[in-house]
From TrEMBL:
One of its GO terms (molecular function) is DNA binding. Residues 87-114 form a coiled coil. It comes from the Bacteria. It comes from Micromonospora pisi. The keyword Protein biosynthesis does not apply. Keywords: Coiled coil, DNA-binding. This is DNA-binding transcriptional MerR regulator. Residues 1-68 form the HTH merR-type domain.
């Protein structure tokens, strides 16, 4: 698929996809005429990049960590990972992600409780 197709399927602008290529976290194929082409796995990779960025990782960290995440998905327990330079930074990001998960879980429970309370009120009226 071409860059426009990948952009449409992921919701990521072509300009941003070219940036991902520039920083080394997305690797398109080049056709004989020089156009970028992407296989189906590029969709999952772009979505994973977006999730990691939303979690607070930098593109540099993503470039270092992404091969490890892919190796773990393909071969669980695999130690086929390059060395991550900024382990402390990665630990900080992990702690940040865990805090966000805690907040999201509390918010989810509060919303469930709220809806349950209102459903009970609606049933009695």
């Amino acid at each position: 698929m071409k860059i426009g197709d990948l952009a449409a399927r992921t919701g990521v602008a072509p300009r941003l996809l070219r940036y991902y290529e520039q920083v080394g976290i997305l690797h398109p194929f080049r056709s004989s005429n020089g156009y970028r082409t992407y296989g189906e796995p590029a969709i999952d990779r772009v979505l994973q990049i977006r999730e990691l960025l939303e979690a607070g990782l930098t593109t540099e960290m993503i470039r270092e960590v992404l091969p490890c995440l892919e190796a773990e998905t393909e071969r669980p327990g695999s130690r086929h990972c390059p060395t991550v330079k900024d382990l402390d930074g990665l630990r900080r990001q992990l702690a940040r992600i865990e805090r966000r998960i805690d907040v999201l879980q509390r918010n989810r429970q509060a919303i469930k409780n709220y809806l349950s309370a209102w459903e009970g009120v609606e049933a009695t009226t």
